[in-house]
Amino acid sequence: MKLGMFMMPLHPPNRKAYETLQEDREAIILADRLGYSEAYVGEHVTDLAENITSCLMFLCSLAFNTHQIRLGSGTINMPNSHPAAIAAQVSMIDHLLQGRFIMGISPGGLMSDAEVFGNFGKNRLDMFVESIDMVLKIWSGDAPYDLEGNFFKVSTARTMIPEIGQGTILKPFQQPHPPIVVTAVAPFSKGVASAAARGWDPISANFLLPQWVKSHWPSYVEGCTKAQRPPDPAQWRVAKSIFVTDDDDALAKRYAHTSEGPYHFYFKQLIRKLVGFGGRANLFKADESIADDQITPDRVSSQLVIAGSVNKVVDEILAFREQVGDFGTLLYAGHDWLDPKLAKRSMTLMAEKVMPAVNAAIGAT
C-alpha cells in the first residue's frame, strides 16, 4: 500500500492567509522529502477557512520545490471555469511537472462557489460532464475546435493564425492526457461507476464512515466491467484523517478527538456545511434513526480520526482496511497545524514507522 496526502485544509478564518498558504506548502514539501507518493489539494473561491482559491496555482508554486511526489488537483471544480481555460492551465502545469501531475475533477461541492459563479440551481452535474468532455476533445483534436454545448462554446475559427501558432491550445505533457481521478463522497456512488467506465479512478473521502467507503468498491467494479477493464484495488485511493504520536495515546486523543485540537475544528466546519446547509447528514450516520442534532464534532472526530501511538495507529489502519477491503493508496488527510511540531512529527511517523508496519502486516497476511 502506498502513502499519499489529501489536503482540503480547513484553517481558522482569523488566521492570516499568507501564513496558512505557507504552512500548506510546507506540508507537501515535507511529504515529498518523506517519500509520500502523491498529494492532492482542493480549492474554493468563497471560503476564508479553505483559502486555496486555485489548486492549480498552488501546485505550480510547488513545481520546483518538490522532486518525486506526484501532485494532484483535488479537485478542479469544472462548472466554475471555462473548458478552454482548464485545458490550457492543466496542460501548462503538466509540462511544468513533466508528468508528475494527476487531474482530479468534480462538479464542486461548495454552494457559495456555485452561487458566485452563477451556476447555483443549475444542473451542475451536466455542466461537469460537458466541461470535461470539451477538455478531452480540445486535447485530442485540433484548432479551431468548434465545440458547442448547452453551457460552453469553444472555437478560434475567426481569429486563428496557424502558421504562427495563434488559436491553438497547448496539449498536455502526458499523452493522451494526465491520469484522471474523481472524489467519491456519496454512499454507493453512481458517479464512481460512471467515472470507472470512462477509465478514471476514485478517491474516497476522508469524512466517510467505513461502510460508505466500502460501498465505493462495487461501484468501481461495475464501471470497470462496463468498460471491459479489470478492476484493480491498486488504483483505488482512500483518504483518512490520522494523527500519530511516538508513545502518547492520551495526547493523541486530546489533539485528535477534542476541541483542543484541529480535527475537532475541521469536523465542526464540515458538519455545518454538509449537515446544516447541504442536507448530507447521511454521510455521518451508520443508522438513519440517528437524529441530526446528534452529529457533533466530538462524536464524528472520535469515529473518523485514527489517532494514537504508532502501534495503535497501525492496528486501527489494518482494522479499517479489513472493514473496507483492499485499496492501493492511503491518503493522509492534511489539517491545520495548530501545533506544528506535533503535525510534522505525525507525518514523519506515518511515513517512517506506520506504513512500513502496515505493509509488513499485509505481506504477512
Features of the shown structure:
single chain; 365 residues; alpha/beta; two-stranded antiparallel ribbon; 13 helices; 12 strands; 44% helix
Walk me through the structure.
This protein has 13 helices and twelve strands. The chain is globular, with a radius of gyration of 20 Å. Strands 1-2-3-5-8-9-10-12 form an eight-stranded parallel beta barrel, surrounded by five helices. Strands 6-7 form a two-stranded antiparallel ribbon. The protein is an alpha/beta fold. The chain has helices at 17-34, 55-60, 83-97, 111-116, 124-140, 190-197, 210-214, 216-226, 249-257, 262-277, 297-304, 310-324, 340-364, and strands spanning 2-7, 38-41, 70-73, 76-77, 101-106, 147-148, 153-154, 180-184, 201-204, 237-245, 305-309, 329-334.
